[in-house]
Design a protein that fits this description.
The complex is a heterodimer. By secondary structure, chain A is an all-alpha fold. Chain A contains nine helices and no strands. Chain A is elongated. Classes of the chains: A mainly alpha, B alpha/beta.
Chain lengths: 259, 1003
């Protein structure tokens, strides 16, 4: 199957396009009709909804990639880039230019996510390539004590695996999303052992900080963003009075608590 | 409990079916041929790896051990488990155990790269996905028996097969696999530990350290980010990055590599007449498909975006490098016009031609020779006086022919009991030949000793390394001879029957006091070690002494070569199987000559044999003017004494440069002519060690308007009316070969028909007729030299090896020396040693050399005993406290042209300065830092490679880098060398020991 990846140049073009769109919006918004400058106006409300819907695509990407259903993970990866960037533009518009309020943190998280993702693809990938044959421990003298600890760990993993997935081979097994859903306790326990093994191997420590941690950071930021969106949606939907802070409530809501 | 054995309910590779690579550290020389093969086979671009050579010894120890790092195809692959995609983008074959990446499913997150503790997971930074070794599944599915890396490995260090079979074979040969299962991952790849040599008892003979169990790392400069970024910033030309489908060949043509002296046979693969791959030729019974990285990387020459595409004329100042495009007709018409003016004003001798062997042997030995004869200039030469003229003269006067007469076959060189390398880093200069020697060493239990200021890749395989003071090999040779003679260890019968002048030489040696104790001071090698080596050479049933540039590139080149030849001869190691004195390539006896009535009389002798001796003629018209230069190659990186060479070039009336790539020399040219190479023109390979003539067909057209050198010389010749001799149809190299080049007893049978009758395209000369059998070993007892009178064993006039004759003595006396070699070293040494002083400068006519044809001016020499005020002592007083050794870099490079191949640059990017840790610490220099090196003749900068495998008083800087190269430009090391330190006999320049001082570069 032919792999259809965004080359660096295309990714940079897309990112630059999104950045230009955001800047353009901030430059021209003063001259736009009132509804494009009023937070919660129907236009900006719907823009926000559209942005969130687009930003759900990366979530779907994660589910598809890990859930065992995706025939084309690379296609979903590309969709996650396109939709994230488009979503970011819409969220920026949705902000109405009010950047000194707490929801602006969500926009900041989006910008950080995009920047981190682009860095990883364009610059971080070179570090990734340069890792080949660069880890110091590869051919050092085997450490007998570490081997013993690993041996015990593997026995523990194999034992646990007989419950988690009796047909699987420990040597090629890692916990996936359906298993987390079906048997969260066992899956988490197994995941803990796998992490411990990884720690003993020392492989993440053997690469640069940026290379080792960009992806956990990217994922953590994404989860923070999702959490932030949930809080924002709950707040504007149920605590519309608090959000309006004495002003008119111009957006769809269920309750106006906090007014 | 075996952790690598999965539970019963899990898929596991049946042990008998599990496939693997076996990598033998005792064989690997770190040449990186496997890297080249892998990238070609899988079309991997810069920075993208499936395998990579790493150093298995730390920089601080005097050892070089290498291994190819590649996927371990683990039973419990950490990469696979780290892959977050479900189903995984990495899969393990349950039968063969091969772990593969499904690139179509890989999202490029890099978790597998982080997870692999062996760092054997590659990554395509441009395509954003993991890449890894899959043991060439696709290649093998197309019918190949083995992996790309194993197929080319010059030393057979990599083997592919069923893991169980590989282990059984290793056990059978008494070899132990390395334990590299640190992580209980169950790696399949097998690494064989190095064998343990006997330990040496003396301080001056070191046993090269074997694979180090602790730290392993590559020299820092090799992976420097800035240097690598330059390579990675360029898009590699076709076929790298292409799909397998687009590069699957539809035609394969056998031929040869045209770069170096190993002259490997190769296969060229085409798809739709486009070259897609170059591999070794597995139909060759001798080389068996083994090939070094350079041969494979010529793929990057044929498709290089840096090639010169059309003729150009200078429009800027000399050295500025500004040109305009012109037509071939305009270029050749104007060049001819200017040459005629020079000839009319100054005489035909005012044209000089520097024709390096990049040009191709056919042009070097035939076309250009004929042009020079027709034009009437004697001032034509190539790189010989920088590389090999000393050994050529020594062979000619001792043997009557160049080359030992032996072959790289199991019966011949393979049967030796002892291999002694003196100043010959064969592992990196002729990697495939060395692979054969090393294989015989391992299989037959032969011994190997390396004498070299550096622990080279060659020395790293030796039982003992003798770190000799550079420039004192002659002292070692004299002492070896003295000890052998003094103890009657010589082959008296051979000496009596087959050596002319043996008694005179023996008496001289014994009278001079050239004892091992005497030599110990000069060489820095203990007397006991010299005696031990002498006794080993004498006792061995077959000893091959290899020498090369380390011996040749000295002002005592001819005499040192003779002394070492004498050592081989008196121990009976000449004209026998498994015994020889080798000094790289045997000559290729092409005897192209123009009819006598078409060659104008040459009125003045050649200025000097060495082109470096032409500079005063260019600058000051002395001893007579040279006003025009047609040059190939890159003299402005290559000639010693660069500052003077550049002044001289700037002073010329006309300079024409014929080359593949624009380089430093191009910038000084008036006309820049684009040349063709290898399969773009058709030619024979380089002269090589064992007399093989390798034919290369013309297979593709050159890029743009580039033309073969032959075409250029014939077309230029037409403008002078030479076309009755340099005929138009000789543009077809096959016609030129059969009709002009092989009219000699040695080559007459080496016809196109015969060359094309074998699938490997080579014939070993001499072959007097088309059906004459090849001769494996020349000069065996009871045989007659080909073409000689019955009973004439050796090709000298006397039929014997000639050590000394009255005629020879007279010839040497002409040059101020004796045929009985008296010891002298170099002018610039850290201790006081006799050296040769040239009595005539290059501006003076000197005397006519009795060792050159055509008549050639030469300087007389005088051996000087050093006093308190001699040049070396003065330099030491000025702080020049380090021996500078120059030489060939690693196997991926050869002079300038490989610096235009992106992968050669990826492998060896920056100019480096190898320096001992003690000296580095004393100067505050760290590995990978920029250093400044100054000699009395100039200064350059380079990157420090801190390495214990070098004399603590020396540094080594390789040749080949230049300041106009596209990736990592550096000033040539020849800014540090001195053109005036030359051998009176052969005009060879000393490039192996000059005093210098090293410091950290500022800024």
């Amino acid at each position: 199957m032919q792999r259809r990846d965004f080359p660096d140049a295309r990714l940079l073009q897309l990112t630059a396009g999104a950045a230009i769109a955001v800047v353009f919006w901030f430059v021209v918004r003063g001259g736009l009709p009132e509804m494009w400058r009023t937070p919660g106006s129907p236009a900006l409300y719907l823009t926000g909804v559209a942005g969130v819907l687009l930003l759900l695509v990366p979530v779907v990407f994660v589910v598809v990639k890990r859930g065992g259903q995706g025939a084309n993970p690379v296609g979903w990866f590309n969709a996650h880039i396109l939709c994230s960037l488009a979503g970011m533009v819409l969220v920026a518009i949705h902000s109405g230019g009010f950047l000194r309020r707490p929801p602006a943190l969500l926009l900041l998280a989006l910008v950080a996510l995009a920047a981190l993702g682009v860095w990883a693809r364009v610059r971080g990938s070179r570090r990734m390539a340069a890792t080949f044959a660069a880890k110091a421990p590869a051919f050092t003298r085997p450490d007998a004590a570490a081997r013993e600890r690993l041996r015990a760990l593997i026995i523990e993993k194999r034992s646990l695996l007989t419950e988690l997935d009796p047909l699987a081979s420990e040597g090629t097994f890692s916990v996936n999303l359906p298993q987390f859903i079906r048997s969260p306790r066992l899956a988490l326990a197994y995941r803990r052992l796998a992490r411990e093994e990884s720690r003993l191997l020392g492989t993440r420590r053997a690469v640069s900080m940026q290379q080792a941690w960009w992806r956990p950071l990217h994922m953590a930021l994404a989860w923070l963003f999702v959490l932030g969106v949930v809080i924002h949606v709950v707040t504007v939907t149920f605590f519309a009075g608090y959000v309006a802070d004495g002003g008119p409530i111009t957006w769809w809501h269920l309750r106006a608590w906090g007014g | 409990m075996d952790m690598t054995t999965p539970p019963k309910n899990t898929p596991a590779s049946p042990p008998s079916e599990r496939l693997a690579l076996l990598i033998d550290l005792e064989r690997c020389t770190g040449c990186k041929s496997c890297e080249a093969a892998c990238k070609t086979e899988h079309r991997l671009g810069p920075g993208e790896y499936r395998n990579k050579v790493v150093w298995a010894s730390a920089l601080e120890e005097a050892g070089l051990a290498f291994l190819t790092l590649t996927c371990q195809h683990c039973e419990r692959p950490a990469c696979l488990r780290a892959c977050p995609v479900n189903p995984k983008a990495i899969a393990k074959d349950p039968v063969t155990g091969i772990v593969r990446v499904d690139e179509s499913r890989c999202t490029g997150c890099g978790e597998c790269v982080i997870a692999c503790p062996y760092s054997a997971m590659g990554y395509d930074a441009k395509g954003h996905h993991a890449v890894k070794c899959d043991l060439c599944v696709d290649r093998r599915a197309e019918g190949a028996a083995t992996t790309a890396c194993a197929s080319v490995c010059p030393t057979q260090a990599i083997r592919f097969g069923k893991r169980a079979d590989l282990l059984a074979a290793a056990e059978q040969s008494g070899r132990a696999p390395r334990d590299q299962d640190h992580f209980l991952l169950g790696p399949a790849t097998i690494y064989l530990e190095r064998t343990t040599p006997e330990l040496s008892g003396t301080a001056t003979a070191l046993t090269p350290a074997r694979a180090h169990p602790g730290e392993s790392r590559r020299p820092s400069f090799m992976d420097a980010v800035a240097a690598q970024n330059k390579v990675q910033a360029t898009l590699p030309a076709f076929p790298y990055g292409e799909s397998r489908e687009h590069t699957t060949p539809d035609r394969v043509v056998p031929g040869g590599c045209n770069i170096c002296f190993n002259c490997c046979t190769v296969k060229f693969y085409f798809k739709n007449n486009k070259l897609v791959k170059i591999t070794g030729n597995d139909d060759d019974p001798l080389l068996q498909g083994k090939v070094c990285p350079k041969s494979q990387l010529t793929l990057q020459m044929y498709h290089s975006e840096h090639r010169l595409l059309y003729p150009q004329k200078r429009v800027g100042a000399r050295g500025e490098g500004r040109f305009e495009r012109i037509s071939w007709d305009q270029a050749l018409d104007e060049i001819a016009e200017k040459l005629k003016k020079v000839r009319d004003q100054y005489g035909a001798e005012a044209l000089a031609m520097f024709i390096g062997t990049r040009t191709g042997i056919l042009d070097y030995r035939a076309t250009t020779k004929m042009f020079a004869q027709l034009f009437g200039t004697p001032n034509k030469d190539g790189t010989d006086p920088f590389c090999a003229s000393g050994k050529n003269v020594a062979f000619e006067i001792t043997l009557g022919s160049i080359g030992s007469g032996n072959s790289y076959t199991e019966n011949d060189l393979g049967s030796a009991e002892l291999y002694v390398y003196i100043g010959d880093n064969q592992a990196e200069t002729r990697p495939v030949y060395f692979g054969m020697i090393n294989d015989w060493r391992i299989r037959n239990g032969a011994k190997m000793v390396a004498v070299d200021p550096r622990l080279t890749a060659t020395a790293s395989k030796a039982d003992r390394w003798l770190p000799i003071r550079p420039g004192t090999d002659m002292a070692l040779g004299l002492a070896l001879a003295q000890h052998i003679l003094a103890n009657n260890l010589h082959d008296a019968q051979f000496c009596a029957d087959w050596v002319l002048g043996f008694e005179q030489w023996r008496d001289y040696i014994m009278g001079q006091g050239y004892t091992p104790e005497w030599a110990a001071t000069a060489t820095g090698i203990a007397a006991e070690e010299i005696k031990r080596l002498a006794e080993e050479i004498a006792a061995a049933n077959g000893c091959v002494i290899f020498a090369s540039r380390g011996v040749n590139q000295h002002s005592n080149s001819t005499q040192t070569n003779r002394v070492l030849m004498f050592v081989a001869a008196i121990t009976g190691n000449w004209g026998r199987r498994g015994g020889a004195y080798f000094n790289m390539s045997a000559g290729t006896p092409i005897a192209a000559k123009v009819p006598a009535d078409r060659a104008p009389k040459i009125n003045r002798p050649r200025v000097r044999r060495s082109p470096a001796g032409w500079t005063e003629a260019m600058l000051h018209g002395k001893p007579y003017p040279i006003r025009a230069l047609i040059t190939c190659n890159n003299p402005l990186a290559q000639w010693p004494g660069q500052a003077r060479a550049r002044e001289a070039f700037a002073a010329l009336d006309l300079m024409v440069h014929i080359e593949l790539f624009a380089n430093e020399t191009s910038a000084y040219a008036d006309y820049l002519l684009p040349a063709a190479s290898g399969i773009e023109k058709g030619e024979i390979g380089r002269s090589n060690d064992d007399r093989r003539i390798v034919w290369i067909d013309k297979m593709i057209d050159p890029p743009g308007e580039a033309k073969s050198d032959t075409w250029i010389w014939i077309e230029l010749g037409k403008r002078f009316g030479f076309d009755d001799v340099l005929k138009d149809r000789y543009k077809d190299p096959a016609v030129f070969w059969d009709e002009v080049c092989i009219d000699s007893d040695g080559l007459r049978g080496c016809t196109q028909k015969r060359l094309h009758s074998v699938p490997y395209r080579w014939v070993r000369q001499p072959v007097a007729t088309e059906d004459a059998p090849e001769i494996e070993t020349l000069y065996l007892e009871g045989t007659t030299v080909p073409g000689g009178a019955p009973g004439r064993r050796f090709p000298t006039k006397s039929g014997k090896l000639e050590f000394w004759t009255g005629e020879l003595e007279a010839k040497f006396n002409t040059l101020g020396l004796s045929a009985l070699p008296e010891f002298y070293s170099e002018r610039e040494q850290l201790i006081d040693l006799p050296y040769v002083e040239l009595l005539d400068s290059d501006a003076e006519a000197g005397v006519i050399s009795p060792f050159c044809s055509p008549a050639t001016g030469s300087s007389r020499g005088r051996i000087v005993a050093p006093d308190m005020d001699h040049p070396g002592a003065k330099l030491r007083a000025q702080g020049f406290d380090t021996e500078l050794v120059t030489g060939r870099p690693a196997a991926a490079h050869f002079h300038s042209w490989t610096h235009y191949f992106w992968q050669s640059q990826e492998m060896w990017p920056d100019l480096y300065c190898q320096i001992h840790p003690d000296k580095a610490a004393q100067l505050g220099i760290k590995d990978g830092e920029r250093v400044r090196v100054e000699s009395a003749h100039g200064s350059i900068e380079a990157m420090a490679w801190v390495h214990a495998g070098i004399r603590s008083t020396a540094v080594f800087i390789p040749i080949g880098w230049g300041e106009r190269q596209p990736y990592n430009p550096w000033r040539s090391v020849n800014f540090l060398t001195d053109k005036t330190q030359r051998d009176p006999v052969s005009d060879q320049t000393n490039l192996k020991v000059l005093l210098c001082r090293v410091s950290r570069a500022v800024g």
